[in-house]
Amino acid sequence: METLLVIVVALLAVAALTQAVRIFEISSQIKGTDTDVKVDDRDNNTQGWLMILFLVFFFGAFAWMVNEYKAVLLPESASVHGADIDNLWNISMGVILTAFLVTQPLLFGFAFMFRGRKNRKATYMEHNNRLELFWTGVPAVVLAGLILYGLTTWSNVMNPENTEEPMVVEIYAKQFGWQARYAGSDNELGYANVRLIEGVNTLGVDPSDEHSANDIITNELHLPKGRPVLLKFRSQDVIHSAYLPHFRVQMNCVPGTRTQFQFTPSITTAQMRSKPEMIAKVKRVNALRAERGEDPWEFDYVLLCNKICGAAHYNMQLKVVVEEESDFNEWMKQQQTFAEML
């Protein structure tokens, strides 16, 4: 509500200023006063130097922003395919920043160099084939290269070559939480349908399906390092978006259909916690939490919802633990199967 009031007040202020300017113009016309501004070389020089000053301020603000915000960027990818996605991101941003750093000085520099002068006359140029070819051909080639590289990266990520059978895990979404269902020793999920939800069977798993008995339902997602994982997504109510930022994974969960994504975790939770950049980030976060009287935070991978799915969307999170194969197997032994839950 506060934000809405600020926006309304700002709009009213702009409207009032516009009307004041209009009243001044009408008043000047009635009095016969000349409202045309006479521009001379001094004014043009002032405007030209202001352009240069703004360029310096603009680049200074940009440098400050990069320095301040680099600390809150995601750390290195914790999945095998994430390196390709990060590389695509870095190349794209490199192209964008190069264009930015080249065009902005030219834009403001030309405004300064060709500012109005008393004895200077503008040259009219109707057309230049070489310039047209340059500023359409170069962007076209660069964009075509980025698109082709992006399509190749996307194809490789979505169709990975399996050297071993991936572990199958279902991620079940509902307002406002997640549950994981492991395929068990047979690595095949039992049939499930929302119409079968009843009592402790919160995922609607079919008890009569022979593959359902050894399925394992958990409220945390544990994954073994270095082993391919095939996540199958299902939603109970609305469209959710399963987002695993540290693994560069995102996939929509759509009611009435199933989506999937395969990836291989490459960094355990313990290894990520021990990285210098993560230690520094945890220290900064805990300093802020201490000021607010909140408990200290410890880094964990997390599964988030990246769709605005309702009032408690912000709190829709699932803890993700990546561990060594032996630790994962030990954790799995402690979990109840679906048959044992009934």
Question: How would you explain this protein's 3D organization?
Answer:
It is an enzyme of class 7 (translocase). It is a multi-pass membrane protein. With 342 residues, this protein is an alpha+beta fold. It folds into 2 domains: 48-115 and 133-159, no CATH class; 167-341, Cupredoxins -  blue copper proteins (Immunoglobulin-like, Sandwich), CATH 2.60.40.420. Helices cover 45% and strands 16% of the residues. The protein contains 8 helices and 10 strands. It has helices at 2-31, 41-69, 82-113, 129-158, 269-273, 276-291, 325-333, 338-341; strands spanning 167-174, 177-182, 216-218, 221-224, 229-235, 240-244, 249-253, 259-263, 301-305, 317-323. The strands form 2 sheets. It has a 5-stranded mixed β-sheet with strand order 3-2-1-5-8, with no helix packed on it. A hairpin with a 4-residue loop joins strand 6 and strand 7 (249-253). Helix 2 (41-69) runs antiparallel to helix 3. The protein starts with a helix and ends with a helix. The mean pLDDT is 91.
Question: Which features characterize this protein?
Answer:
342 residues, alpha+beta, Immunoglobulin-like, 2 domains, 5-stranded mixed beta sheet, 8 helices, respiratory chain
Describe the protein's topology:
Layout: H1 2-31, H2 41-69, H3 82-113, H4 129-158, E1 167-174, E2 177-182, E3 216-218, E4 221-224, E5 229-235, E6 240-244, E7 249-253, E8 259-263, H5 269-273, H6 276-291, E9 301-305, E10 317-323, H7 325-333, H8 338-341
Parallel strand pairs: 1-5, 4-10
Antiparallel strand pairs: 1-2, 2-3, 5-8, 6-7, 6-9, 9-10
